[in-house]
């Protein structure tokens, strides 16, 4: 268990675990071997939870098996969302990958499978 | 006065009936308008260059005639300019298709503009190239090189409109520049009016992928419902002289425009939102706001611009050998174990039936595929049901076709020599085109526009045919 996951488990007390998919929607885009995942809270009330728990470290860990080398997170409070930019995750990209999905278009839903701890789910 | 930007297509392979309701709405509104077709990706440009090498008359968007036929005459009659990067590798060829199509409705004299300057293949060796930060690839040797195209900005498109073009054909331009150009032409925006240029580019960014801003690529049943996706309306962006913009869509179409659909497209393929690079302006989205004004009407405000970058992105396409794929299905009781055994057999066969440099990947579709690594980490660790409906997929790559054929033939042979109950084999192989991106100096790129002259074009083609005959 990574340090981040330990902290996550500790904070479960008083909250409950849900998939990020319950709290947010996302879209993937690609350029070369770089993927961007735009993530938005359904309810602006959950934006702070996204900021707290969808960290660069956790996203890097989620995509580690794909060879991700770096994650940069750009917060967009005005949109209740963030842009996650992940390097070297596309196995060569649209013209180089052997993956069925060379664009990495499906990977927005790999992110949305991330486990989150929330006090409430409003939707 | 408001200028309307209508999207006719968002990629090569998009719906060819999408532009019809968009044009009907533009005509109904009677305001100044343009219709934009974005049909050129990194893959499609490479494919177009290859097609043109095999047939000098090919190399433009294959669906061009089908995209334009239902709307060209209406646009010409109502003064709606059409701009598209459907010229791909062969803008002259595309101009000819447009001219012929216009002639069928008695508009053979339609003025067609053609953008030049994106194709820098012949000069690639002389230019100072910088690597693009998101990649790390060596420049291929001359023998492997297929094409090199610069992402041009809106200036040559505006030049074509100023020459009086009713239809503008380009090859590689930055996708949103197709939308910015008619705005600069109509409003007379200055090339250093960064905030307005940024707003125009973002109008393009929001509209360039067609339905992706109007409910396409958005639906997630139970979470994000979208009405009548089968008839999703393509976007119309209303732009004011001061750069204010509203995203909407034609009345009576499916889909929807909401703050959510607009936000997803706003950051699509964006990296640092404070520095979104385009050829004409660096866009700063840090303070952007999205606001629902009413049903299917969303305003986007707070877009800022900074001076244009000094370098332009260039995509180089080169030969990437051969790629092959083959699949076989296993279903019912114990299907996963049979698919896994098939994968093991195949992996072992390839160790002595194919050269060591063959690159390969095995997926079990239904268990772990698109999320997985090339070496199957998730396939080994993710839990799955023993029974079910699984499809083993092999993907291989090699510089020589024969090894790709051999490897996929090994999957075919699982029919008789593999585990029980395999079926539904499909195989395919094709040439692979690789791409790499570089940055060239803006001052090294000469972009301009001309009006298409059909007579000159026919003479040039005849000369090329004659030269080819002599060569044979």
From TrEMBL, chain B:
Pfam family, one: AtuA
UniProt domain Acyclic terpene utilisation N-terminal: residue ranges: 5-447
Source domain of life: Bacteria
UniProt xrefs under InterPro entries: AtuA_N (IPR010839)
Name of this chain's protein: DUF1446 domain-containing protein
Lineage of the species this protein comes from: Bacteria, Pseudomonadati, Pseudomonadota, Gammaproteobacteria, Oceanospirillales
């Amino acid at each position: 268990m990574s340090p981040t996951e330990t902290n996550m488990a500790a904070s479960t007390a008083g909250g409950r675990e849900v998939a990020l998919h319950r709290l947010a929607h996302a879209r993937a885009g690609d350029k070369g071997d770089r993927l961007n995942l735009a993530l938005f809270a359904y309810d602006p009330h959950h934006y702070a939870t996204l900021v707290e728990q969808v960290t660069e470290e956790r996203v890097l860990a989620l995509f580690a098996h794909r060879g991700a080398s770096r994650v940069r997170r750009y917060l967009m409070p005005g949109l209740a969302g963030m842009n996650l930019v992940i390097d070297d995750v596309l196995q060569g990209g649209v013209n180089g990958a052997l993956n069925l999905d060379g664009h990495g278009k499906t990977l927005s839903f790999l992110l949305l499978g991330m486990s989150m701890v929330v006090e409430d789910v409003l939707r | 006065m408001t200028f309307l930007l209508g999207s006719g297509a968002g990629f090569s392979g998009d719906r060819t009936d999408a532009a019809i309701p968009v044009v009907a709405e533009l005509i109904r509104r009677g305001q100044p308008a343009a219709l934009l077709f974005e049909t050129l990706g990194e893959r499609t440009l490479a494919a177009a260059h290859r097609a043109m090498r095999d047939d000098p008359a090919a190399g433009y968007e294959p669906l061009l005639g089908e995209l334009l036929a239902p709307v060209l005459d209406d646009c010409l009659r109502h003064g709606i300019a059409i701009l598209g990067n459907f010229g791909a590798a062969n803008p002259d060829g595309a101009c000819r298709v447009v001219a012929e199509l216009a002639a069928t409705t008695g508009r053979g004299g339609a003025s067609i503009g053609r953008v030049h300057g994106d194709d820098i293949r012949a000069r690639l060796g002389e230019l100072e190239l910088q690597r693009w930060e998101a990649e790390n690839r060596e420049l291929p040797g001359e023998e492997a090189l297929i094409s090199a195209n610069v992402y041009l900005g809106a200036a040559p498109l505006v030049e074509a409109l100023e020459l009086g073009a009713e239809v503008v054909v380009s090859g590689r331009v930055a996708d949103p520049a197709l939308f910015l150009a008619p705005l600069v032409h109509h409003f007379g925006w200055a090339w250093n009016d960064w905030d307005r240029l940024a707003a125009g580019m973002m109008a393009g960014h929001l509209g360039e992928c067609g339905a992706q801003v109007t409910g396409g690529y958005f639906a997630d049943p139970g979470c994000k419902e979208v009405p009548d996706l089968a008839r999703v309306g393509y976007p119309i962006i209303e732009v004011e002289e001061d750069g204010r913009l509203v995203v909407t869509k034609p009345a009576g179409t499916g889909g929807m425009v909401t703050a959510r659909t607009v936000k997803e497209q706003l950051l699509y393929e964006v990296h640092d939102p404070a520095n979104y690079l385009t050829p004409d302006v660096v866009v700063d989205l840090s303070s952007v706001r999205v606001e629902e004004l009413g049903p299917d009407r969303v305003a986007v405000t707070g877009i800022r611009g900074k001076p244009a970058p000094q370098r332009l992105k260039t995509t180089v396409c080169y030969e990437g050998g051969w790629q092959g794929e083959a699949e076989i299905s296993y279903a019912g009781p114990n299907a996963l174990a049979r698919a896994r055994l098939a994968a093991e057999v195949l992996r072992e066969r390839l160790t002595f039936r194919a050269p060591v440099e063959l690159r390969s990947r095995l997926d079990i579709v239904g268990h772990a595929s698109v999320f997985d690594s090339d070496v199957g980490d998730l396939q080994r660790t993710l839990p799955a049901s023993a029974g079910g409906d699984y499809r083993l997929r092999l993907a291989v790559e090699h510089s020589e076709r024969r090894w790709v054929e051999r490897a996929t033939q090994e999957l075919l042979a699982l029919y008789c020599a593999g585990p029980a109950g395999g079926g539904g084999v499909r195989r395919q192989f094709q040439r692979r085109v690789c791409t790499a991106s570089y940055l060239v100096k803006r001052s090294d790129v000469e972009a301009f526009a001309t009006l298409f002259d059909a007579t000159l074009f026919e003479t040039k083609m005849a000369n090329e045919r004659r030269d080819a005959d002599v060569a044979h």
